[in-house]
Design goal:
CATH topology of the largest domain: ABC transporter transmembrane region fold
Number of domains: 3
Shape: elongated
CATH superfamily of the largest domain: ABC transporter type 1, transmembrane domain
Structural class: alpha/beta
Mean pLDDT: 83
CATH class of the largest domain: Mainly Alpha
Low-confidence stretches: none
CATH architecture of the largest domain: Up-down Bundle
Number of strands: 10
Number of helices: 22
Radius of gyration: 36 Å
Strand content: 5-15%
Strand order of the largest sheet: 6-7-8-3-9-10
Helix content: 55-70%
């Protein structure tokens, strides 16, 4: 069991002083508490020789003083140990979140969001319970038992031995049930992750589910998973239901032996009535710690199972990280692909021998059929994907020579799938530049040709966009994302099909604003429309992961290749749409 706690060692070392003070308070609490039965025993024997008000007052005040001191140290124990568990939970949650934030996109392709959420909530809570209540009650049980044994042994060695005879049975039961509880809880947590993932997918894909009229099918599927979760949970409940009564039976057996043997000791005048009373009070005080063993075992098994699941996330190293030789240096904007061949892990090459140079301050448009590798190519520039060493150069240096923070700080990126946070439009635009002024936010929105529409909202730039920007149309979300990229004033601006959801008129207005913004900075944009690409300094035609054509708009038209056929097709479509 203690081997499973090893991932928590850094956190336990960090708060060793608090835990040490908690340990001292625990010892003092139990050392004082163990005096109560002794005082009661002396009081009973003393009062057998005559009952007076002075004796009652003396013994009553003694018990009150001991109880008050015991209560003070119990408060300190709970405050310190439970407080430390909350601090460790705080640090664990921050470390988990920080590590998840550093992961590359590929991590989230292989790990379900619901599973991650389950580990960062349910599992983290189980670890906190282990570090707080489980440790505290375990320490109280061990220390009080160790402190009480000498007193009990002094009263009667024979009675102490008889009273503790059933305890090995309890130890065997705890070990047996503990192992089974651990295995069951691991399965329950895995099932909880599945349910969380399924719920998250259904909430995120609610529109699609309704569009395909699959509500009832998804409800039935969720109910099946939920029933399995309940079945496993009830099995765990049955185990716990068996453990607690069994421990109580063993404890009751111990009390019965105490009464039988102790009564005989009193009758035989080997111990006094007061001593017998004190011994029974000790046994009663041991009742809750012994019963709590079952609960503590449950907490330990749950916590150790959850530690393993949390440690799996903490051990995840980002597949894309700073190289040891990386230096924080500003980016000018000269981009070069040098014999670039790239394939996703475990799959065939998507890009083949790409040789391309984009001088700083110029623009490159990339066109080509769906699936030709356009998005993959631009994702290599901010290292959202990692190319082979030396295949991508920035300002003449391998891209891995730049720190990720410095590289991405100088890049404004508008991805193909627009994502907006559940916040105001202002905060979404200023996401990459938190210190942006209201004028800067409005200027960026004007360049993206969305300022007028935003100001028509009841709260203007302070309008909440809802989860994933649900209150905005597709075109509005894309333009908000463009404004978010522009406001950073980046040296490199990447637009991955960022104008796909706007009409040609709006597209022209946005491009007009972007042309001024693009001056002096390197711009790479993907488009399926010739109207978007035609004014770029270079146009690359990507087909099946290879550069089929490269040149200006006029040069490519003169070649009468793929670009020319695409141009003719789109011109015909425009003429037909005008005619209708």
């Amino acid at each position: 069991m203690f081997e499973r706690l090893r991932p928590l060692n850094p956190y336990l070392r960090r708060y060793w002083k608090s835990l040490a003070w908690g340990g001292v308070a625990t010892i003092l609490y139990n050392v004082i508490k163990v005096l109560i039965p002794a005082v009661i025993g002396r009081a009973v024997d003393d009062m057998q020789h005559g009952l007076t008000q002075a004796k009652i007052l003396h013994h009553g005040l003694s018990l009150l003083l001991i109880a008050a001191c015991s209560a003070i140290f119990l408060y300190i124990t709970r405050q310190v140990i439970i407080g430390a568990s909350r601090e460790i939970e705080f640090d664990l949650r921050n470390d988990l979140f920080s590590n998840l934030e550093r992961q590359s996109p590929s991590f989230y392709h292989t790990h379900r969001t619901g599973d991650i959420m389950a580990r960062t909530t349910n599992d983290l809570n189980a670890v906190r319970q282990l570090l707080g209540p489980a440790i505290m009650y375990s320490a109280n049980t061990i220390v009080f038992t160790a402190a009480a044994l000498p007193f009990m042994y002094r009263i009667s060695p024979r009675l102490t031995l008889c009273a503790f005879v059933p305890l090995p049975i309890a130890s065997v039961l705890v070990q047996y049930f503990g192992n089974r509880i651990h295995r069951r809880f691991e399965r329950i947590q895995a099932m909880f992750s599945d349910i969380s993932a399924k719920a998250q997918e259904n909430f995120s894909g609610a529109r699609l589910i309704r569009a395909f009229a699959q509500e009832e099918a998804e409800i039935a599927s969720f109910e099946t998973a939920n029933r399995e979760y309940i079945r496993r949970s009830l099995y765990l409940v049955r185990l716990m239901a068996m453990l607690w009564p069994t421990l109580e039976f063993v404890l009751g057996l111990s009390l019965m032996i105490t009464l039988l043997v102790g009564g005989h000791e009193v009758v035989s005048h080997r111990i006094s009535v007061g001593q017998f009373t004190a011994f029974n009070v000790y046994m009663v005080q041991l009742t809750w710690p012994m019963i709590a063993v079952g609960w503590v075992v449950n907490l330990f098994q749950r916590g150790t199972a959850s530690i393993v699941r949390i440690d799996e996330l903490l051990k995840q190293k980002p597949s894309i990280a700073d190289e040891p030789t990386a230096v924080a240096q500003p980016v000018t904007g000269n981009i070069e692909f040098n014999h670039l061949t790239f394939g996703y892990e475990g799959g065939p090459a998507v890009l083949h021998d790409i040789n391309l140079r984009i001088p700083a301050g110029t623009s490159l448009a990339i066109v080509g059929p769906t699936g030709s590798g356009k998005s993959t190519l631009v994702n290599l520039i901010p290292r959202l994907l990692d190319a082979a060493p030396g295949a991508v150069l920035i300002d003449g240096r391998p891209i891995r020579h730049f720190t990720l923070a410095e590289l991405r700080k100088d890049i404004g990126f508008v991805p193909q799938e627009t994502f907006l946070f559940s916040d105001t439009i202002r905060q979404n635009i200023a996401f990459g530049k938190p210190d942006a002024t209201s004028d800067q936010v409005q200027d960026a929105a004007t360049i993206a040709h969305i300022s007028t529409e935003i100001l028509e909202f009841p709260k203007g730039f302070d309008t909440m966009v809802g989860e994933r920007g649900v209150t905005l149309s597709g075109g509005q979300k894309q333009r908000t994302a463009i404004a978010r990229a522009v406001i950073r004033d980046p040296r490199i601006l990447i637009l991955d099909d960022a104008l796909a959801s706007v009409d040609t008129y709006t597209e022209e207005r946005i491009l007009s604003g972007l042309r001024q913004c693009m001056e002096g900075r390197t711009t790479v944009f993907i488009s399926h429309r010739i109207s978007t690409a035609r004014n770029a300094d270079q146009i690359a035609v990507l087909v099946s992961g290879r550069i089929a054509e490269l040149g200006t708009h006029d040069e490519l038209l003169a070649r009468n290749g793929y670009y020319t056929s695409l141009f003719e097709k789109q011109r015909l479509e425009e003429e037909l749409s005008v005619a209708t």
